[in-house]
Amino acid sequence: MHTNIVTRHASHPEDVKGYDTQKLRDHFLLEDIFQKDQINGVYSTFDRLIVGGIYPVTKSLELETVDQLKSDYFLERREFGVINVGDSTLVTVDGTDHKLGRKEALYIGKGTKEVIFHPSAEGQAVLYFNSAPAHTDYPTKKVGLDDAEKVELGSLENSNHRVINKLLVNSVVDTCQLQMGMTELKPGSVWNTMPAHTHDRRMEAYFYFDLDDDAVVCHYMGQPDETRHIWMKKHQAVISPAWSIHAGSGTSNYTFIWGMAGENLDYGDMDKVAPVDMK
């Protein structure tokens, strides 16, 4: 087996108030998802989202079913979104090859039986993925940055000038509940998703990259009046429950991937929190 998925159970917000630093990290932070010639991830009971990394170095890696799914194959009842954060590579989906360049996304629908991730001929294939339960099958579709729905927000004066690339969202590709995109911060900007918000109808996961080895991001989570923080490095991900804010600030600009699953597909469905009201 080269597909390794561990389970993390949902946490009640009242319990999280009492977590120390290590317990908070143990429940929500994914530190080492990229392991040589492995598919690694976390099965979260928050909306049953699976979050993980794929790192084929010396051999191709087929997506295998795991015990949590009790299915004949991984995507028997699931959909899958993957974004390449490394060098160009190939992904084979039921016999069809899809070339995936850096920062390009691939949606793979429910019912797909064979998915194979290949090493890069140009360097390192490093792929980040989210997977959610699906009720119907939609076709595989590649989405590049030129295909994304783009929104430019913020300003350099407020240290939050950024471009949101909506990649695997319902305005670009048909999905059941999975939504994924990528936000790129401009040089000189360090704040993301500020003002912060929650969305009680869906959970979210963040993945940070485009950081130097000595750079870090402070990710903020928790209820708006009971916030917590987690210090993160590049190529790490964090789980954000529906009751939690999700925002961050870095020691430099960076890029992050956001992924959501839950009740609806409305990107604008959020409950904003004024910065002055957070505690």
From TrEMBL:
One of its GO terms (molecular function) is 4-deoxy-L-threo-5-hexosulose-uronate ketol-isomerase activity. Belongs to the KduI family. It catalyses: 5-dehydro-4-deoxy-D-glucuronate = 3-deoxy-D-glycero-2,5-hexodiulosonate. Its cofactor is Zn(2+). Zn(2+) binds at residues 197, 199, 204, 246. It is an enzyme of class 5 (isomerase). CDD domains: cupin_KduI_C (cd20491), cupin_KduI_N (cd20294). This is 4-deoxy-L-threo-5-hexosulose-uronate ketol-isomerase. Binds 1 zinc ion per subunit. Keywords: Isomerase, Metal-binding, Zinc. Pathway: Glycan metabolism; pectin degradation; 2-dehydro-3-deoxy-D-gluconate from pectin: step 4/5. Catalyzes the isomerization of 5-dehydro-4-deoxy-D-glucuronate to 3-deoxy-D-glycero-2,5-hexodiulosonate. InterPro entries: KduI, KduI/IolB_isomerase, KduI_N, RmlC-like_jellyroll, RmlC_Cupin_sf. Transmembrane segments: none annotated. Its EC number is 5.3.1.17.
